[in-house]
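Allow me, if you will, to draw on your knowledge of protein folds for a short while. I have a record of one protein: its chain in single-letter code and its fold written as discrete structure tokens. Could you please explain, in whatever detail you think fit, how the structure tokens follow from the sequence? The record follows directly beneath this note:
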Amino acid sequence: MVDNYPEEPLQPPWPKPKPYTSNIFRRLARGWKSWFGLLNEWDFRVSLGELNLLGKRVFLVNDPLLVRKVLVDEVDLFPKHPYTLWILEPLIGRAIFSVNGEEWAIQRRLIDQAFQVANLKKAFPAMTAATSSLLHRLEMNGVDSFVDIDKEMTMVAADVIIRTILSRPIEGDEATDIFKAFSRYQRHAGRALVLRFLRLPKSLIQLSLKDDAKVIRNWIQAFIHERLEQNKVDERNPLEKIDFLDTLIMAEDPKTKKKFSEQDLVDQVCFLFLAGHETSASSLGIAAWLLARSPEVQKQMRVEVMSVVCDRPIHSMLRFDELRQLPYSEAVFNEALRLYPPVSFFIRDRDKKDGELATSEGRRRCPVGSLLTLSPWVIQRHDKYWPEPHQFKPERFLKNSSSLQRNAFLPFGMGPRKCPGASFAKQEALLVLAELVRRYELLPVTDQDPDFVGLLTVRSQNGIRLRLRELEHKT
């Protein structure tokens, strides 16, 4: 691999924070369409911010040591905030992402057990099949074509997760309906947090979410019910080929002997689909856009990929073990996650006893009922923790790099509640992006930058358009 990094790293456009305002209603209005509007310029400079939001103490936690305290060292004192459950409950019910305490612990043991059975190597064929479908769709566009890469990455991410969980591809018409329902749910969910700050009741907040959630839940429940009915009469060997739904059905908590009920399975699969499809779609589309804007980075990634596949024909895709030989490609994806983390904020609750939050800048009282926001979007662009924080520099994630700050890179969270699918997402991203740069030169569409907004995930309101120029290769 040739280590010729760009002399002038790219500083891609991003929705910059607004000037400071002490007017709470103006700030909430700015955050109506995107939570980024709630942020002020000083949020990216302080270690700990504090705001009295209509009687509620709200803290913005930026200090890496304090982040570790909240997410790792004293995680029991800072559970998921009830707002998380209220916003997501219509879609994912009481799935692992938004519950706390023993309910979460049981679910985590069951989920971990399922991931151990359905490991990354077993999931790889589903990823390869979905990636092959993506490449076929792109090939049909022609040798030099314009595409909405955000739309294509949404499709391939959904295809990967559905093939992995249910052993079937996602079809065109059903995909369109489901993606539209997700898009509407995202918009309404982003506004639900603002409405809750304005003291609107939970029942009213969830009313705007239920119709779109029902479309998705009914779709998933039909597959789960069919599988459970099939299992009643299916006498196949349980060790034969199984998918992730099978592992969830078979999982049993060693402590309580609890298993997932049909309703539990719907909740968990809805969450896994939300997490596995929506976050991967966001990060894949943005990573491809960054590569298109960074020709030297793209070239270096392509050189690395080609050094692994050597003279194999183009129809022979990357193999499972070969993904471990792509350190620069992994650094590219990590840098995309740093600049545009799909889940841009987490909220936690101080629910047991009064305490304090301490940083090098001082101490703040943190009473019971306080809301703590930990934002990868802010922390990963904070100039105190990252040199040249707004520039696209994948090399900062390579080995022996001193610029990667401990506890300041958390696109998947950290601690016991870190996303259990982080390795899955990275494997999927490496495969898709490597096969893409292997076949195409990615070129930007200069007259249309993405309009990024912060909702449940970071997405572009106007899509992400790229030009794909097919490369010459062996067949």
